[in-house]
Amino acid sequence: xxxxxxxxxxxxxxxxxxxxxxxxxxxxxxxxxxxxxxxxxxxxxxxxxxxxxxxxxxxxxxxxxxxxxxxxxxxxxxxxxxxxxxxxxxxxxxxxxxxxxxxxxxxxxxxxxxxxxxxxxxxxxxxxxxxxxxxxxxxxxxxxxxxxxxxxxxxxxxxxxxxxxxxxxxxxxxxxxxxxxxxxxxxxxxxxxxxxxxxxxxxxxxxxxxxxxxxxxxxxxxxxxxxxxxxxxxxxxxxxxxxxxxxxxxxxxxxxxxxxxxxxxxxxxxxxxxxxxxx
Length: 279
Description:
The protein is mainly alpha-helical. The protein is 44% helix and 5% strand. A hairpin with a 5-residue loop joins strand 3 (248-251) and strand 4 (257-260).
């Protein structure tokens, strides 16, 4: 590659014929030639919920969103996955969980083929990738005192709550861990949003009062499952959380986050940085 001058290789998933020459293949990768880029990539974005992943899959594979979700809810299939993957346990079979595999599909881009893949093989690609990422952090997760399921649950909340600045994430994680240690509710609106499968800033009083195990405004501790797909950087933010005395944080419209030690400080931050009303 160096001798041929192929020094601007473009990351992607490509589909080539075995009859193509080395030079033609390398030229395509070096220029990111769209003609050879796989059109069947599935990208799971950090923050995606299971129904969103199923929707993306349904666009690329010959199954409907409903068929995919049904497979991921099938108890016998889930038990087979639990037997295959060390990080999947009976915790995902909790009847309170909306989507058993929520949070276990690693946020990444995957190559799938309508001819060669099934719902099961595509699912295993997502889980295999998560296996790689979790295995690198297995000891740290064990030392954290959380099960893998609890760890991914907290990581998913940090993912949704953390704002746009990665440097805030360890501090956000620290706030939640402080609340857990104090026996307080997490007070996280993103878990309420999960009940309604939405992403809103201004929730109604009736939504905030919803009787659900995912409502961390009402219930202390973690919800019964993760609420979205996560990345390794979010995992590391939880494992290496910043120890502070903060028990509140407020995400501003400009993406910054204000941390507070008292409710009075927190309310002032919210009053000084209001979000526009959802339409």
